[in-house]
């Protein structure tokens, strides 16, 4: 696969880039070049924001259309993406190492699912409501699109996480400038082709591939109205500072270090597939994974053994092989980071129960063996910091209260899970964990439910009706007391 692009999709057209540089994309599995795209510069962002601004401000344009008309366009985009599903999965997997079995499900499937879900919401939701007041009058409460959105997405689930933003923003009537990560830009071009084919009006969706400086430029651009960001906590803090200074609304989906709490009555042998998804999905490069496994002291050795068998039993291989369960890290820098944490775990006294080194069978590709640490408590660096790789730490606890205490003893609060043979006990214990979302005997975000983090895992929510509300602003019109009725 070698895909060369030489233009940018801005204002509904393929335009020449204004800078001289390109972003070269390399396969995570083979380290071979697989394509290149122009690197957008600030002037391109200006043009993209200009296109989005014009589309938003047009008095008969997208923001003012009947929501059902927007829904039709969104469904056409869903169809255009479905017809590219296989290629989309391949592009994502080749770039970031996500096993193609996973990208087929998520990266190729989730975007159109979200578009159809939010298209339905656009049709059914109420965008204005008349309320009887307590002071005798009546008020018209309008939910208006918030404006031009600058969206910044990471490389780990580049399409799904883009559509956590695009689908609700389109339903609300916003227009957007989207900045993908330099590691995953080839999928963006397939998306732009689908946008063009679906007849999304010019300027509604614009794409500017580039790095963090370009992202920072977009965040502070004077002509955007809202920022939606998914990425690291460090970048999120810097973006929040900028948005605070500018009083600019921002949604932040950041890092995590979630707990998988195994209760004393859990029968894990029945749940190995769910356990894998909740702790190792996408080579450990997933924000919500429960990489701190909390085990009751009296079952500690058994649970270390179960997780070691899980980690040691998965098929590690080329991301494009459909039988692969764990592919390579997305970049050599990412592998260095993961290996640095493994060394840190060992230096702090951790015992390697599984993995810990590079698998021997690969000459190329940024592989790390799925790794399980025992013998550390929750204060260890690898139990406190996000690793973003296939590295689990099994931590002992005394009783349920102690498990909740340890789960909450974290800077983060994004995902998590509870494993038990008693679903009600699991639900009640889950409710005590300070986290934005948590599963019982499985973990999988659902489009209908708000997703996001507390503490250093972020601010605001995506998905569900709450996800669309994040792209709306409220206006109250106190109606003429003489009785003019609302439209
Ligand atoms: P990153 O923060 O380095 O980069 C994410 C994106 O932000 C990239 O497009 C990057 O170019 C851009 N960026 C970086 N610094 C910026 C800045 N100061 N201003 C504007 N843009 C900037 O993160 P990453 O390494 O690409 O992704 C992994 C991180 O993302 C992990 O911490 C992971 O937990 C997090 N993540 C969170 C969620 C969630 O929903 N909470 C989902 C997936 C990933």
What does this protein look like?
With 487 residues, the chain is of the alpha/beta class. The chain folds into two domains: 3-254 and 453-476, Aldehyde Dehydrogenase, Chain A, domain 1; 259-440, Aldehyde Dehydrogenase, Chain A, domain 2. The chain has helices at residues 42-57, 67-82, 85-96, 100-105, 110-124, 158-172, 186-197, 212-219, 233-246, 272-279, 300-313, 332-347, 381-384, 400-408, 423-430, 464-469, and strands at residues 3-4, 8-10, 13-15, 22-26, 33-38, 128-132, 138-145, 148-152, 175-179, 205-207, 226-230, 250-253, 259-262, 292-296, 351-354, 371-374, 391-397, 412-413, 417-419, 439-440, 454-455, 458-459, 472-478. It has 16 helices and 23 strands. It starts with a strand and ends in a 9-residue tail after the last strand. Helices cover 37% and strands 20% of the residues. The protein has a seven-stranded mixed sheet with strand order 15-16-17-14-13-19-20, sandwiched between helices. The protein has a six-stranded mixed sheet with strand order 10-9-8-11-12-22, sandwiched between helices. Nicotinamide-adenine-dinucleotide (NAD) is lined by residues 152-156, 161, 179, 181, 211-212, 215-216, 219, 230-232, 235, 238-239, 253-256, 287, 386, 388, 414, 453, 458.
């Amino acid at each position: 696969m070698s895909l060369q692009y030489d233009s940018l999709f801005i204002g509904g057209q393929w335009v020449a880039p204004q800078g001289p540089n390109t972003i070269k994309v390399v396969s995570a599995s083979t380290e071979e070049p697989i394509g290149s795209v122009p690197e957008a510069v600030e002037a391109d962002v200006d043009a993209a924001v200009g296109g989005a601004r014009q589309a938003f401000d047009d008095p008969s344009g997208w923001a003012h259309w009947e929501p059902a008309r927007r829904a039709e366009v969104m469904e056409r985009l869903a169809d255009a993406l479905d017809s590219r599903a296989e290629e989309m999965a391949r592009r994502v997997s080749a770039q970031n190492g996500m096993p193609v079995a996973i990208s087929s499900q998520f990266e190729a499937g989730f975007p159109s699912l979200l578009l159809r879900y939010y298209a339905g919401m656009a049709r059914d939701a109420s965008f204005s409501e008349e309320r009887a007041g307590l002071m005798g009058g009546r008020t018209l409460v309008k939910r208006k699109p918030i404006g031009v959105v600058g969206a910044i997405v990471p490389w780990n689930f580049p399409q799904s996480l883009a559509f956590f933003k695009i689908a609700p923003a389109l339903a609300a009537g916003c227009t957007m400038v989207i900045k993908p990560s330099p590691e995953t830009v080839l999928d963006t071009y397939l998306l732009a082709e689908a946008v063009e084919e679906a007849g999304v009006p010019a300027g509604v969706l614009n794409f500017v591939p580039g790095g963090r400086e370009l992202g920072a430029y977009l965040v502070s651009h004077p002509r955007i109205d809202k920022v939606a960001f998914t990425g690291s906590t460090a970048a999120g803090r810097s973006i929040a500072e900028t948005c605070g200074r500018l009083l600019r609304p921002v949604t932040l989906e950041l890092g995590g270090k979630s707990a998988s709490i195994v209760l004393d009555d859990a029968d894990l042998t029945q749940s190995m597939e769910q356990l894998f998804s909740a702790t190792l999905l996408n080579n450990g490069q997933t924000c919500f994974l429960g990489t701190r496994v909390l085990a009751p002291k009296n079952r500690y050795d058994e649970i270390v053994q179960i997780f070691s068998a899980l980690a040691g039993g998965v098929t590690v291989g080329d991301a494009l092989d459909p039988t692969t369960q764990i592919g390579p890290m997305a970049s050599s820098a990412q592998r260095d980071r993961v290996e640095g944490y493994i060394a840190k775990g060992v230096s702090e006294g951790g015992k390697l129960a599984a993995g810990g080194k590079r698998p021997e069978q690969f000459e190329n590709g940024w592989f790390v063996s799925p790794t399980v640490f025992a013998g550390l408590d929750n204060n260890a660096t690898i139990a406190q910091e996000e690793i973003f790789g296939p590295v689990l730490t099994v931590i002992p606890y005394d009783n349920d209260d102690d498990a909740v205490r340890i789960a909450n003893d974290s800077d983060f609060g994004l995902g998590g899970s509870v494993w038990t043979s008693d679903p009600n006990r699991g639900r009640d214990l889950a409710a005590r964990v300070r986290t934005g979302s948590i599963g019982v005997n499985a973990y999988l975000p659902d489009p209908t439910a708000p997703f996001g983090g507390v503490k250093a895992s972020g601010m605001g929510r995506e998905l569900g009706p709450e996800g669309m509300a994040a792209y709306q602003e409220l206006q109250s019109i106190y109606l003429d007391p003489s009785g003019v009725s609302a439209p």
